[in-house]
Amino acid sequence: MVETFRYREAMTQHHSVIILGSGPAGLTAAIYAARANLAPLVIEGEPSSTSDQPGGQLMLTTDVENFPGFPDGIMGPELMKNMRDQATRFGSVFVTEKASVVDFSVRPFSVTAAGEHYTSDAIIVATGAQSNMLGLPAEDRLIGHGLSTCATCDGFFFRGKEIAVVGGGDSALEEATFLTKFASKVTLIHRRDHLRASKIMQERAFANPKMEFLWNHEVTDLVGETSLAGIELRNTVTGDTSSMPISGLFIAIGHTPNTHLFQGKLTMEPNGYLHTGPGTYTNVEGVFACGDVQDHTYRQAITAAASGCMAAIDVERWLEAQHS
Amino acid sequence: MSAHVAHLTSATFDETINSADNLVVVDFWAEWCGPCKMIAPILDDIAVEKAGVISIAKVNVDTEPDLAMRFDVMSIPTMIVFKNGVPAKRIVGAKGKAQLLADFTDLL
């Protein structure tokens, strides 16, 4: 039986400010904009199993130990729920969809999400960054069958098994350390001979008896038809190739900013991040950007939150100047 | 949790799937899985909106590891769509409502 969907007539809703994204940057901008009586509309994104989802990258983490104000740490999803509740309390409105089209060429600006049209006087871009994949053809076949982007979701399925994590930053070490709760052995594969991760994460990982380190190696292929059976490796120094039989592989190899929507509309740095400055101003007057979408240097929850606050203040002052 | 959503166990799984005369989407989930929590309200909505056409059922992989193993679930959320008692489609990972609806209604 085929049922036809009900399509609502295209109606346009106007807001003084629309915030795209709902990680620490977007939600902090929402809290500040809401407290300035701007009743922001937050187009928060749609569910996914990558970090590109409402709440952002912290939704896939466990303990956040470096966010000030939580001496015993706080779970990433809980921190994000708190921020969302705080933004809601002061009058932010949420749409759980992903923006698909933006038009910043005329004012009011317009945004389309799930077929609905929204307009606004100002825009705050806080779309963040999403985790990179290896870019191997076998990934599509094996994702969910031994290959995972979410350690907190899938670690459970690798109890007593030997698995590997690819990456060398804080997220890779956090995932690897978390996975030692389940796996019998976790090998961290990194293409260099030292880690980018913070010292405390490194010390914790080096002291973990279940962790092993494979330096100067990169994954060149995944083996297994219906589920992951192993990986092919290449030594980045000598070029030698080898294989490793494993049933689970977790990927944490950095992030790419979510700027696809703004191609040709906002000025970007050569590495694809949005260009901002002074403050959170983009090259389009009335469009501001904050958080990881414009920060390739610090990329912390607290720096994202701080720049979200800056964006809301920039918007408030800019809107006032338009009316005076 | 909506009344339209059945929680399946090893004891009830086969009877529920085999006796259904509509599509049954079985959502493999767990309490500790963020993306699972995010799609839960979407699946609840679909259960209400598509009542009689699509049923939503859930399997908690923490309490039903045998069912997870039987269907080779190694990542959650995994949604297996059963048509006439046999798996017709497998969706791995959380998605938005429009995409999930499209994935399910494809099989109607």
* Strand/helix succession of chain B: EHEHEHEEH
**Which pair of chains has the greatest number of interface residues, and how are they split between the two chains?**
A-B, 34 and 33 residues
Radius of gyration of chain A: 21 Å
Catalogue the unreliable spans of chain B: none
Beta percentage of chain A is 25-35%
Please compute the radius of gyration of chain B using only Cα atoms. Answer: 12 Å
Arithmetic mean pLDDT of chain A: 93
Rounded average pLDDT of chain B: 93
Q: Structural class of the helices, strands and pairings of chain B?
A: alpha/beta
Shape, per Cα inertia axes of chain B: globular
Percent of residues in helices of chain A comes to 10-25%
Low-confidence parts of chain A lasting 5 or more residues at pLDDT below 50?
A: 1-10
The shape of chain A, in one word, is: elongated
Number of strands of chain A: 19
The tally of strands of chain B reads 5
Q: Distance between termini of chain A? A: 59 Å
Distance between the termini of chain B: 25 Å
Task: Give the % helix of chain B.
Answer: 25-40%
| H/E element sequence of chain A | EHEEEHEEEEEHEHEHEHEEEEEEEH
